[in-house]
């Protein structure tokens, strides 16, 4: 048994998916950060393609990014491709970028991207000596974070962020940057919509925008093009966007038909926006034609089992020529599973009250009060087997580290599985879920598998030897615990079930961990 889902439910789901006239499938980190992440996404794509549920209203696979700005990062080449979805393994694409930038093509990087865990490997080997971190908090968000911190501490690190985050503790240089609302520029959202953001207020004195910082860096570095002119010629965000339009021309994300004025007038536009689609493109693939021609595709793809990048010749053999590619898939179990030493599954995730590593949400009093600390969610059956009481401080250990958090007992987590929210990561405490998580990665996407690790739960208790004067009530009063919890902690069936000389276990601490309802206005 692989999933634990009853066969009749699986058959019913298959029947519905096989018959439905429309289907939108959304995925996010729960899929991307699990075992077989890419395989799951490929299976979803296969289903939509086979059934023709793509390119028409109410249909399509919607693989969203964790942050809206991630879409823009992908479009402009921030995650392994060259700008405008160009292929770094295609010589003609490299030549085209060299022409657009007026640089020597031999100086442009070739080949596939390096995932973050590969970059940590390179830091440990001394092959990355400089790391520029902009607007993210890897010292809380990366798995096996103690290992990640040690790698960062071997490297010269620049942290560019509006806030002092946990990652700032490993920085050699801190560059404070302006927030949204304090700067101007264009952004892309998860549905390809391009919006113009105008500056609402000035940033604090001396604080510059990301754009201004990077522009200043390029000028100080004296970066030149092939003719000896400054490589970066623009001075404003609008001039930068005008250059970007030239780079995007003829590519899937063609934005040559966009201007700042048009973005404001139309309240955003979905690419491509060009002469053929002057008002933008509501949905892609309406003609079932896909950008898979060998000289056009953004990637020659990868081996679906090993993740090895395919060569141009291997890709040409598929002869997709504008057709979508169906890939066979194979199930592989998680890289780490429970063992005798670490008998429970650990999974991590989000709470509705916080965003990622709480860089901003922790500074909101309402959101902080709603969920002020880390905890572990444990099934009541497992809690009973361990004789845990609600709110009891426990230690969770994995092959990588340990944390100490209160237990929240109920039926939210499955039996044999514990859940720890990953938002909390102050170096002053031990409640960061990513002290525990495994840093194995998906061979294709290179995303870490945060969702499946092995762990164990240990009680943290002191001991009390019962004397003739002791009663459960007096002991409860002494240790600030209820009689009921004292009984549960020691598997006592009656208040009179203690004997002189008996050794009782006393939880070292109990902390209330209520989670407010997510939609309180819906309560009746």
Notes on the structure:
The protein is α/β, with parallel strands linked by helices and 524 residues long. 26% of the residues lie in helices and 16% in strands. It has a six-stranded mixed β-barrel. The chain has a three-stranded parallel beta sheet with strand order 3-4-5, with no helix packed on it. The chain has a three-stranded antiparallel beta sheet with strand order 6-7-8. β6 and β7 form a beta hairpin. The longest helix has 15 residues, at 37-51. This is Molybdopterin-dependent oxidoreductase. Pfam families: LysM (PF01476), Molybdopterin (PF00384), Molydop_binding (PF01568). Residues 462-506 form the LysM domain. Keywords: Iron, Iron-sulfur, Metal-binding. Residues 67-88 are annotated as: Disordered.
Task: Give the overall form.
Answer: globular
Strand ordering within the main sheet: 9-13-10-12-11-14
Q: How would you sum up the major sheet?
A: 6 strands, mixed, barrel
Straight-line distance between termini: 39 Å
Mean pLDDT: 93
Global structural class: alpha/beta
Radius of gyration: 27 Å
Overall strand count: 16
Pfam family, one: Molybdopterin
InterPro entries: Asp_de-COase-like_dom_sf, LysM, LysM_dom_sf, MoPterin_dinucl-bd_dom, Mopterin_OxRdtase, Prok_molybdopt-oxidoreductase
Region (Disordered): 67-88
Keywords: Iron, Iron-sulfur, Metal-binding
Quick synopsis:
This protein is 26% helix and 16% strand. It has 524 residues and is an alpha/beta fold. The two termini are 39 Å apart.
């Amino acid at each position: 048994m692989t999933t634990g889902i009853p066969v009749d439910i699986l058959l019913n789901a298959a029947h519905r998916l096989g018959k439905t006239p429309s289907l939108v499938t959304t995925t996010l980190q729960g899929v991307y950060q699990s075992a077989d992440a890419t395989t799951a996404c490929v299976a979803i794509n296969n289903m939509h393609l086979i059934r023709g549920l793509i390119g028409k209203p109410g249909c399509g696979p919607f693989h969203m990014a964790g942050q809206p700005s991630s879409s823009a990062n992908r479009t402009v080449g921030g995650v392994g491709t060259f700008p405008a979805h160009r292929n770094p393994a295609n010589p003609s694409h490299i030549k085209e970028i060299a022409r657009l930038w007026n640089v020597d093509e031999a100086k442009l990087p070739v080949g596939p991207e390096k995932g973050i865990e590969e970059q940590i490997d390179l830091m440990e080997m001394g092959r990355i000596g400089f790391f520029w971190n902009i607007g993210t908090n890897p010292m809380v968000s990366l798995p096996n974070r103690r290992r990640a911190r040690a790698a960062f501490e071997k490297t010269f690190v620049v942290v560019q962020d509006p806030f002092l985050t946990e990652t700032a503790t490993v920085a050699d240089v801190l560059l404070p940057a302006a927030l949204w609302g304090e700067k101007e520029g264009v952004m892309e959202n998860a549905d390809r919509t391009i919006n113009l953001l105008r500056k609402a207020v000035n940033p604090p004195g001396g604080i510059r925008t990301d754009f201004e910082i990077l522009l200043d860096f390029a000028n100080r570095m004296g970066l030149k093009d092939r003719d000896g002119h400054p490589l970066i010629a623009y001075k404003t965000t609008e001039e930068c966007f005008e250059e970007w339009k030239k780079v995007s021309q003829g590519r899937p994300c063609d934005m040559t038909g966009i201007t700042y004025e048009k973005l404001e007038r139309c309240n955003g536009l979905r690419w491509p926006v060009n002469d053929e689609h002057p008002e933008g493109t509501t949905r892609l693939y309406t003609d079932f034609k896909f950008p898979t021609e060998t000289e056009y595709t953004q990637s020659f793809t990868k081996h679906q089992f090993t993740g090895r990048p395919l060569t141009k010749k291997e890709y040409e053999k598929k002869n997709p020529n504008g057709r979508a590619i169906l890939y066979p898939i194979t199930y592989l179990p998680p890289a780490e599973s429970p063992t005798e030493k670490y008998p429970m599954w650990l999974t991590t995730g989000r709470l509705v009250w916080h965003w990622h590593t709480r860089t901003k949400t922790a500074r909101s009093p309402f959101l902080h009060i709603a969920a002020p600390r880390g905890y572990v969610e444990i099934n009541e059956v497992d809690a009973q087997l361990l004789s845990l009481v609600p709110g009891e401080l426990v230690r969770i250990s994995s092959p990588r580290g340990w944390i100490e958090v209160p237990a929240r007992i109920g039926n939210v987590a499955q039996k044999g599985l514990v859940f720890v929210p990953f938002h909390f990561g102050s170096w002053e405490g031990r409640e960061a879920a990513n002290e525990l998580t495994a840093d194995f990665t998906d061979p294709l996407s290179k995303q870490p598998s945060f969702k499946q690790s092995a762990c164990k739960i240990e009680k943290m208790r002191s001991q009390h030897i019962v004397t003739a004067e002791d009663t459960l009530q007096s002991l409860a009063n002494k240790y600030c615990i209820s009689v009921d919890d004292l009984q549960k902690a020691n598997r006592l069936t009656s208040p009179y079930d203690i004997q002189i000389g008996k050794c009782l276990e006393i939880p070292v601490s109990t902390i209330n961990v209520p989670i407010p309802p997510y939609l309180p206005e819906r309560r009746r």
